[in-house]
């Protein structure tokens, strides 16, 4: 190692983390090791690197690196270049899909889906309350798991090929000392099968979200409202389901009666919007109608 490089290396500030995970049940077992380290190269440039190793009894092993290069040219400005490797293991439904008929077959030799993501993020504080973010992203997924019809007419989950997705997202977020919080975001994405060059089913092109949280009483009782828009999506039968807008409302309190006690009451789809999600290959319907106006009451306590 050269003397000049050695001097620069010794100036790095490092902070590392090592985690080990083990899990097992009657049908499968898995264990994982994750290592992450962070280097402060200069006062304005930080490098974060990590790697995760997973071993599953169902499909074998996978190694996934990740990294982030963060540049802060000004106090309220950050530019981030992010890379991540990840995976999705086949679940019990995908491995054992079978309805006791001759038209379906389980799959015992599936591989995990392997993902690679690259992101370029620009963050800017507009003032002490407002933060804006612009994100460009690209994702590649290999060995995509999907239910397919074999040449003999039997349905089976298989690793079907590669999918690519790219797009952009912009959002503005605000937080005030009075307790008010708000966020609005818009995202556009194009997700296609590499083999057929066609848009994937259940893959929206446009999404918009608006959130607002308002304090009702002191710092313990709040109201939150959220509106979501999703553009139409392709279905597995070749049709489409339309776009929709739904609004949800939540009232919640923190530490109101007892320390650590949280209470919330939510109303979903408060305008009773009629909308559909795409059906799968096993459904007769082109689209599955979703629930209208519903509500939920929730309580939790921390000890």
CATH superfamily of the largest domain: TonB-dependent receptor, beta-barrel domain
In CATH, the architecture of the largest domain is Beta Barrel
As for the CATH topology of the largest domain, it is Maltoporin, Chain A
Q: What is the radius of gyration? A: 24 Å
The backbone outline, from C-alpha atoms, is globular
Strand content: over 45%
The CA-CA distance between the termini, in Å, is: 53 Å
In short:
With 303 residues, this protein is mainly β. The protein has helices at 3-10, 92-96; strands at 13-24, 29-40, 45-56, 60-74, 77-88, 113-125, 130-142, 145-149, 155-159, 163-175, 181-193, 206-217, 221-230, 233-234, 240-241, 244-254, 261-268, 276-278, 287-289, 294-301. The strands form four sheets. Strands 1-2-3-4-5-6-7-10-11-12-13-16-17-20 form a 14-stranded antiparallel sheet, with no helix packed on it.
């Amino acid at each position: 190692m050269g003397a000049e490089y050695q001097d620069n290396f010794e100036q790095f500030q490092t902070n590392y983390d090592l985690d080990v995970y083990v899990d097992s049940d009657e049908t499968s077992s898995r264990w994982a090791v994750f290592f992450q380290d962070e280097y402060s190269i200069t006062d304005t440039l930080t490098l974060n690197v990590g790697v995760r190793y997973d071993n599953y009894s169902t499909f074998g092993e996978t190694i996934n690196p990740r990294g982030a290069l963060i540049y802060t040219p000004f106090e309220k400005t950050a530019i981030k270049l992010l890379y991540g490797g990840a995976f999705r293991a086949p679940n019990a439904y995908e491995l054992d899909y079978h309805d006791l008929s001759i038209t379906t077959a389980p799959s015992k030799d599936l591989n995990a889906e392997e993902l690679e993501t690259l992101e370029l993020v620009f963050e800017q504080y507009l003032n002490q309350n407002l933060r804006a973010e612009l994100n460009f992203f690209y994702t590649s997924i290999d060995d995509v798991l999907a239910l397919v019809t074999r040449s003999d007419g039997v349905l089976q989950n298989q690793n079907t090929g590669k999918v690519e997705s790219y797009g952009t997202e912009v959002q503005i977020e605000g937080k005030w000392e009075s307790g008010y919080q708000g966020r609005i975001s818009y995202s556009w994405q194009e997700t296609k099968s590499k083999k057929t060059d066609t848009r994937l089913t259940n893959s929206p092109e446009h999404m918009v979200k608006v959130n607002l949280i308002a304090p009702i009483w002191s710092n313990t009782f709040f109201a939150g409202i959220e509106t979501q828009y999703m553009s139409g999506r392709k279905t597995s039968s070749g049709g489409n389901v339309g776009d929709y807008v739904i609004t949800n409302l939540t009232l919640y309190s923190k530490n109101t009666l007892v320390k650590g006690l949280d209470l919330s009451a939510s109303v979903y789809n408060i305008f009773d919007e009629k909308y559909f999600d795409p059906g799968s290959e096993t459904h007769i319907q082109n689209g599955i109608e979703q629930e209208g106006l519903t509500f939920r009451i929730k309580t939790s306590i921390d000890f």
